[in-house]
């Protein structure tokens, strides 16, 4: 059985998907980009601000499922330019305890939705 997770504190889905799906104790999130949930406008001032907005959106989705970043066991980071990795990694890392940080892959892709620079998805377990 699956439970659909959606919150107004994260950007509304803009297609045939939900922000996350909970099945059993496992949460699978959709990828988040730097959309401000209040305005649905992109926050692209700089790569640090963009990454922070992505992580805040993800935080809201996790909270809607009664979870935190401590519950995250796996992340996938998609970036449009590997030269931004260091700056993205600093912001991303500030949301986790390094000793218990999740498994992760980071890949450069040709293009992301709305031509953003970073998209992140997560798997979390209660």
UniProtKB/TrEMBL annotation:
<dbReference type="InterPro" id="IPR035959">
    <property type="entry name" value="RutC-like_sf"/>
</dbReference>
<dbReference type="Pfam" id="PF01042">
    <property type="entry name" value="Ribonuc_L-PSP"/>
</dbReference>
<dbReference type="InterPro" id="IPR006175">
    <property type="entry name" value="YjgF/YER057c/UK114"/>
</dbReference>
<dbReference type="InterPro" id="IPR006056">
    <property type="entry name" value="RidA"/>
</dbReference>
<protein>
    <submittedName>
        <fullName>RidA family protein</fullName>
    </submittedName>
</protein>
<comment type="similarity">
    <text>Belongs to the RutC family.</text>
</comment>
